[in-house]
């Protein structure tokens, strides 16, 4: 009986240590991801970056760290993570190709927000439209024309064309 218990313990203890280690890796990693994303958010708020961009980047940082932590925890459990890493890479490539237009608009929105070729309230002419900029969003810019029409232009189209900013 004693020998049987010793055999059971000799099998269970290494697995229990790995399970506890994996859980600790996950808990600490999730905590680190939350702190890192919150620190990033505070840094962006002090530099007056657009809230939409800050929120998106904060979430990207959090989930990127969390994916790394999950892979590390699974590796600690003895699970081969090479296939997970390859699958995440392939999924990222597929999503990137599927959202190519949206990603171009997103990148253009980030450039407009960071470099500020125009601001909310400016009257601009771009992509064949003229109007007052009402809102600069991450994927598009919303303007109101002189005849009170709402104009929504994708940001990639704006950055790919000339922009004329009229002085006030």
TrEMBL record:
Membrane topology is: Multi-pass membrane protein
Superkingdom assignment: Bacteria
InterPro entries given for it? LSM_dom_sf (IPR010920), MS_channel_1st (IPR049142), MSC_TM_helix (IPR008910), MscS_archaea/bacteria_type (IPR045275), MscS_beta-dom_sf (IPR023408), MscS_channel_2nd (IPR006685), MscS_channel_TM-2 (IPR011014)
Q: Give this protein's Gene Ontology molecular function annotations.
A: mechanosensitive monoatomic ion channel activity
Alphabetized UniProt keyword annotations: Cell membrane, Membrane, Transmembrane, Transmembrane helix
Give start and end of each Mechanosensitive ion channel MscS domain.
Answer: 102-163
Q: Where in the cell is it found?
A: Cell membrane
Q: Where is the Mechanosensitive ion channel transmembrane helices 2/3 domain?
A: 59-100
- Example of a GO cellular component annotation carried by this entry: plasma membrane
List the SUPFAM superfamilies.
Mechanosensitive channel protein MscS (YggB), transmembrane region, Sm-like ribonucleoproteins
Where do transmembrane segments lie in this chain? 12-33, 60-79, 85-115
Nucleotide-binding as a keyword of this entry, yes or no, is no
Q: Tell me which family the UniProt entry assigns to this protein.
A: Belongs to the MscS (TC 1.A.23) family.
Please identify the protein, giving its name as recorded. Mechanosensitive ion channel protein
Supply the source organism for this entry.
Candidatus Omnitrophus magneticus
């Amino acid at each position: 009986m004693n020998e049987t218990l010793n055999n059971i313990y000799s099998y269970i203890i290494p697995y229990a240590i790995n399970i506890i280690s994996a859980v600790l890796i996950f808990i600490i990693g999730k905590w680190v991801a939350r702190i890192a994303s919150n620190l990033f958010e505070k840094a962006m708020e002090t530099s007056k970056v657009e809230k939409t961009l800050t929120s998106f980047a904060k979430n990207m940082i959090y989930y990127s760290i969390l994916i790394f932590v999950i892979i590390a925890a699974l590796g600690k459990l003895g699970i081969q993570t090479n296939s997970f890493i390859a699958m995440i890479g392939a999924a990222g490539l597929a999503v990137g190709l599927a959202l190519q237009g949206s990603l171009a608009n997103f990148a253009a929105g980030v450039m407009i927000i960071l470099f500020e070729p125009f601001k909310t309230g400016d009257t601009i002419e771009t992509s064949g439209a003229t109007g007052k900029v009402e809102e600069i969003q991450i994927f598009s810019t919303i303007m109101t024309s002189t005849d009170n029409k709402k104009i929504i232009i994708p940001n990639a189209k704006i950055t790919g064309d000339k922009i004329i900013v009229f002085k006030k």
